């Protein structure tokens, strides 16, 4: 049971060719574009949703920060769609791979921090020392703030990976438990099945929330630095 | 001649020559994918009252393809006495 619990997380290859590329590119098929003013229902719904999210997320930024709108909206769409697609049976979720989340988190965080250092050097360096600290504590606090700055990309990546992987594993385990319990005691199996339903609802929420949190944090790092 | 006929109008004896006449260059294959995509899109999604069926058929096909991909590992989990 242990080996096949984790087989859903290995990179999909077919005859030695990376199938994972196709799986990562698949969500782009689900977001068609349209140049018309009044398009079909599918495109209209997506455009409405995207407008809602971008207004809510980018309103706190100044004009320099709002140049990142395209990047952040693509980010939230990508993470949200890959997480939600991963909830389908037998599918592979790219965001369970730490390599991919690191690849998303580190460049975005580094871009925000380096923009801050280049354009507002004094203010960025001042972030390392919160206001009103007593003088003897200053050296320690600078070290702590530096560590907390450098841990931001790691936390971004690991948070997303751990949440999605843990959710998938729980679904696998409880689903397997329900199946095994059906022949032993039907009532317990029913209880376990209810737990599975609740867990699936939670996973839908987590899929979208994680996308939101990732993007929100990147936008906060951006806000600090523009 | 078997040139430029649609597949359903090709006679069985002409099938090999018809297949060999298709455009297998990269741009030809890309064109085939593009045509297939727009055929599906314009039939099920880009209509006045598109329903959930347009999206769910795609997702069902995705689930099916993933099942085929992971069949090798899944067949060990069947309820059989001898695997």
Automatic annotation (TrEMBL), chain A:
Compartment(s): Mitochondrion inner membrane
Secretion signal span: none
The keyword Glycosyltransferase is assigned to this record: no
Keywords, alphabetical: ATP synthesis, CF(0), Hydrogen ion transport, Ion transport, Membrane, Mitochondrion, Mitochondrion inner membrane, Transmembrane, Transmembrane helix, Transport
Alphabetized PROSITE patterns for the sequence: ATPASE_A (PS00449)
GO cellular component, one term: proton-transporting ATP synthase complex
Catalytic reaction annotation: H(+)(in) = H(+)(out)
Topological relation to the membrane, as annotated: Multi-pass membrane protein
A GO molecular-function annotation: proton transmembrane transporter activity
Domain of life: Eukaryota
Transmembrane segments: 6-31, 67-86, 98-117, 137-158, 164-184, 196-222
A single BP term in Gene Ontology: proton motive force-driven ATP synthesis
InterPro entries: ATP_synth_F0_asu, ATP_synth_F0_asu_AS, ATP_synth_F0_asu_bact/mt, F0_ATP_A_sf
Chief location of this protein within or outside the cell: mitochondrion
Quaternary structure (record): Component of the ATP synthase complex composed at least of ATP5F1A/subunit alpha, ATP5F1B/subunit beta, ATP5MC1/subunit c (homooctomer), MT-ATP6/subunit a, MT-ATP8/subunit 8, ATP5ME/subunit e, ATP5MF/subunit f, ATP5MG/subunit g, ATP5MK/subunit k, ATP5MJ/subunit j, ATP5F1C/subunit gamma, ATP5F1D/subunit delta, ATP5F1E/subunit epsilon, ATP5PF/subunit F6, ATP5PB/subunit b, ATP5PD/subunit d, ATP5PO/subunit OSCP.
Family indicated by similarity: Belongs to the ATPase A chain family.
Name of the protein this chain belongs to: ATP synthase subunit a
TrEMBL record, chain B:
Protein name: ATP synthase F(0) complex subunit f, mitochondrial
Main location class: mitochondrion
Keyword Transmembrane helix: yes
Assembly notes: Component of the ATP synthase complex composed at least of ATP5F1A/subunit alpha, ATP5F1B/subunit beta, ATP5MC1/subunit c (homooctomer), MT-ATP6/subunit a, MT-ATP8/subunit 8, ATP5ME/subunit e, ATP5MF/subunit f, ATP5MG/subunit g, ATP5MK/subunit k, ATP5MJ/subunit j, ATP5F1C/subunit gamma, ATP5F1D/subunit delta, ATP5F1E/subunit epsilon, ATP5PF/subunit F6, ATP5PB/subunit b, ATP5PD/subunit d, ATP5PO/subunit OSCP.
Subcellular location: Mitochondrion inner membrane
Gene: ATP5MF
Species the sequence originates in: Bos taurus (Bovine)
Pfam families: WRW
Function: Subunit f, of the mitochondrial membrane ATP synthase complex (F(1)F(0) ATP synthase or Complex V) that produces ATP from ADP in the presence of a proton gradient across the membrane which is generated by electron transport complexes of the respiratory chain. ATP synthase complex consist of a soluble F(1) head domain - the catalytic core - and a membrane F(1) domain - the membrane proton channel. These two domains are linked by a central stalk rotating inside the F(1) region and a stationary peripheral stalk.
Superkingdom: Eukaryota
Bilayer-spanning residue ranges: 50-68
Family: Belongs to the ATPase F chain family.
InterPro entries listed in its UniProt record: F1F0-ATPsyn_F_prd
């Amino acid at each position: 049971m242990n080996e096949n619990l984790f087989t859903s997380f290995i990179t999909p290859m077919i005859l030695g060719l990376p199938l994972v590329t196709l799986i990562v590119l698949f969500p782009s098929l689900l977001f068609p574009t349209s140049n018309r003013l009044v398009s079909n229902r599918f495109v209209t719904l997506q455009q409405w949703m995207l407008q809602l999210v971008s207004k809510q997320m980018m309103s706190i930024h100044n004009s320099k920060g709002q140049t990142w709108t395209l990047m952040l909206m693509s980010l939230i769409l990508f993470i949200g769609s890959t997480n939600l697609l991963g909830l389908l049976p037998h599918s592979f979720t790219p965001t369970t791979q730490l390599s991919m989340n690191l690849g998303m988190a580190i460049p975005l965080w580094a871009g925000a921090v380096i923009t801050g250092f280049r354009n507002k050097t004094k203010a960025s360096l001042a972030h390392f020392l919160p206001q009103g600290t007593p003088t003897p504590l200053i050296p320690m606090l600078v070290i702590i703030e530096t560590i907390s700055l450098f841990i931001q990309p790691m936390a971004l990546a690991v948070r997303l990976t751990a949440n999605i992987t843990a959710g998938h594993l729980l679904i696998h385990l409880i689903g397997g438990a329900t199946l095994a319990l059906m022949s032993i005691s039907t009532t317990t199996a029913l209880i376990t099945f209810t737990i599975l339903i609740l867990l699936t609802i939670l996973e839908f929420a987590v899929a979208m929330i994680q996308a939101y949190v990732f993007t929100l944090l990147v936008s906060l790092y951006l806000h600090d630095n523009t | 001649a078997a040139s430029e006929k649609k597949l359903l109008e090709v006679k069985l004896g002409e099938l090999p020559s018809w297949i060999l006449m298709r455009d297998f260059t990269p741009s030809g294959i890309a064109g085939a994918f593009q045509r297939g995509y727009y055929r599906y899109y314009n039939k099920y999604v880009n209509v006045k009252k598109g329903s959930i069926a347009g999206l769910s058929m795609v997702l069902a096909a995705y689930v099916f393809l993933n099942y085929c991909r992971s069949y090798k590992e899944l067949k060990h989990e069947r309820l059989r006495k001898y695997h």
